[in-house]
Amino acid sequence: MCRNLLDAGHDVICADNFYTGRRANLADLQGNPAFELIRHDVVNPLYVEVDLIINLACPASPVHYQSNPVRTLKTSVFGALNMLGLAKRLRVPVLQASTSEVYGDPTIHPQPEDYRGSVNPIGIRSCYDEGKRCAETLFFDYHREHGVDIKVARIFNTYGPNMRPDDGRVVSNFITQALRSEDITIYGQGLQTRSFCYVSDLVDGLLRLAFSAPEVTGPVNLGNPYEFTMLQLAEQVIAKTGSSSKLTFLPMPSDDPQQRRPVIDRARTLLGWAPKVPLDAGLDRTIAYFRQFA
After folding, report:
1. pTM above 0.90, yes or no
2. Catalytic pick from 103, 128, 142, 159?
């Protein structure tokens, strides 16, 4: 995101508390006079002068967001309030990175934006799911009550370089385990599905939404509409890494969605966007990045 904005000629202020991020990911930008990095947590107000706000704050991996669920909920809710307050004061657009998890374990497949979801409000994933749902509510209430120019993107599974080896999401888990010739951990029978969007495609979609006309508020699904089972993903990773890893099966985690695939008609129509990088090519690039940690 930062690199794309800088390449387009913008000045960028990046605020990160480094709860899941790493300074090393931005090391090459530190000498750029158009780039400023601030260590800051959006749970606290941020006082800057900007023309556009993009709120990406919140750990997205179950391992990280469940390790401190109250903090996760605060990040989504207080963070949304602080970013909306800043946008209201400055009279600038603000984009919220929401999630496909607002759909919960869906009863409709694939998931269009008008599907209201099937979410457990008191489960172990609720801190993330309900936090993001509440943030969407705040965004649309600020839009209706205060006229704030909002954009809401519902992000489906995204992967690519610069993920942490201990990220805890399925692509990074499988690649790390395969490169170390460890057993690949699959939950349930491995028949649950996900749709994997490469990071460059997602950033393109987010920026198209961020710079779209004021009447384009969203929510807009951003994700890859091609669906894969966990078994298919594991087999691809093993083949591409040449690993001797075996598959090991564990019980399904609580409230883990069985299906996940976006309807992206809105993104195609409103933003002229669709993902370009197939899983095969994206995995090659991601595996090449993760080899340094093997």
Report:
1. yes
2. 128
